[in-house]
Amino acid sequence: MADPDVAAGALADSLLVREALRCRALGSQPDPLAGLRIDEAEVERLVAQLSGGDRKEGRASKDVERAVERSREAFHAALREDGLVSHIVGRAGLTPPEAEVLGLLAAVELDARRQRLLGYVQDDVTKTRPTLATLRRLFGDDGVLGVSPEGRLRRAALVRVDDASSWATKVVTLCEPVTWALVGDTSIDPDMPRDAFVQLAAVPQEGAAFVLVSGEDRTRRLQLAMEATVGDRFLVVPLPTSPEGWQAVIREATLGGLGVVLEVEEALTADARWWIELAEHLPFAISSRSELALEELPRRRWVERRAGAAEATDEEWGLVTSSSQDRHGHRLTAEQLRLVATALPGVGGDIDAAVRRLASGPLDRLARRIRPSRTWDDIILSPDRIVQLREVAVRYRHRDTVYADWGFPPFPSTGLVALFSGQSGTGKTLAAEIIAGDLGLDLYKLDLSSVVSKYIGETEKNLEKVFSAASAGNLVLFFDEADSLFGKRSEVTDARDRYANIEVSYLLQRLEAYDGLVVMATNFQKNIDDAFLRRIHVGIDFPMPEEPERRAIWQHAFPPGAPTKDLDWDFLARQFKLAGGNIKGAALHSAFLAAEAGSPITMEMVMLALKREFQKLGRLRTSAEFDRYTDFVNSTP
Length: 637
Prior knowledge:
Elements: H1 4-26, H2 40-50, H3 55-59, H4 61-78, H5 84-92, H6 96-109, H7 112-121, H8 132-144, H9 152-155, E1 159-161, E2 172-174, H10 176-182, E3 197-205, E4 210-214, H11 218-228, E5 231-238, H12 243-256, E6 259-264, H13 270-278, E7 284-288, E8 303-306, H14 314-320, H15 334-343, H16 351-364, E9 367-370, H17 383-397, H18 399-405, E10 416-422, H19 428-439, E11 442-446, H20 448-451, H21 458-471, E12 475-479, H22 495-513, E13 517-522, H23 530-533, E14 538-542, H24 547-557, H25 569-575, H26 580-597, H27 603-617, H28 623-626, H29 630-635
Parallel strand pairs: 4-7, 4-8, 5-6, 6-7, 10-13, 10-14, 11-12, 12-13
Antiparallel strand pairs: 1-2, 3-5, 9-11
């Protein structure tokens, strides 16, 4: 069985020997530059080596021509056998002369003797690779056109042509990654976009040569792209941003016999259209979230497909976990499940931790993560409100049963939106944390300073990042001071009003499409836009606590390990009509006063702490409230 690589070397040798003998007969030789002179003896030695030692055949022109023809026939016969050169020729669709040019360039690149003889042939010892004029002499116009700007060798990004000289003296070089591939190196091309990877098709089949695939989920798009495009292995790559990047993609696909899946974030660029049209020998698929505009598409026959449902199937879950039942209520898309699978080893196989890790990176920059630590025992509310809060967790926990199993229609999504309204300190944030803990989820409290921007359109972009990241993980999204974002739309009197209304409208649409749990807290429910209120599934009012609740809050505010002395719970609950947050603040301040004094926490210390709490609230102290402690509080700075 003939080796195409060996046959290419033999063809190159015969061609170079013939050309060297012609030059020698004409008496041309390079100038003797700084010891680089190639003398007659060296030429005779090189000719003898490259002609297989038969110098007589090398001297007879007819014999030399016959040797060229024999090596040419052997080369083309070898291309029918298995080998990298023959694979490249077939994949790039090279004509016989173009294949011979490729064989010569490869042989010259791998042998310094051939490079030395080329210097003699080209009458310039510095030109150790062939020029366009030399290729034209050796292969005629059909061969040299293969390295023209749109020639097949250039379309496949296999060769490089020096642009720094006149046409005849332009040097043609085999691209370095091709040479490395010829010697067995499979390193990634340094010009390749960094996120590129090779993917095997699940079920290789005959498909189209150019496919457009759109859909919400990246994994689903890739699956469909590889099903619908001809080929069994694909180079998946983001849209290159430089000519070198494009050449690396085309070259890698040609060398490896790969189809190309281009992942497009927005529009298809003019460069992308040009390269897809140029590299017509490669199958292409374009994966994009939305359908591309017709005017953006390359001039190639295409078929279009829409990716199906994004949610991961039971079979896909079974490949990641021991059973599809181990999903722990998580509802992930196929792409999210793929990312979770990569995270599982790093979190010890904990599926819940892997899902939390999925969302934490993007969200941590825009929201504050609260890992729930409080339970239902930590909140003091009236019994009916506790029941309402528990129903929020119930609705979220059983949504699959109601919507999927029983067939209730979700309007407009399976998400759940709860509104907690009431004064500061009445337990809204605490309630959100407890619900998240009851569901085994993390709570992300939105940081308005990171989201709201004075620049037009930036707030919407930041909110989109929040919702997209939250969709990637099973979590509770908490909007504190919701009236700041969900406020009522106003009459448009200037551009600022118009853009403020656009923000509210965007939030309405995004909230409708979100499938997770959203808790909004506000001190001013009347400031919330009516359209938002219509989208609330559960609304709970957090009133100021009554005396029985205040007494329980005071008792709960002091941990069992805190040293207390003669604290009058009834007096505290009866006299001070405060929210739970203020009560806890006063209790904490009194603890520090006691720690400084080195004594138990006394009523006097609690009174001083309440004085500071009143000052913080800007509230006047009255003797009716402080009663028998009024003189003590007033006399203490």
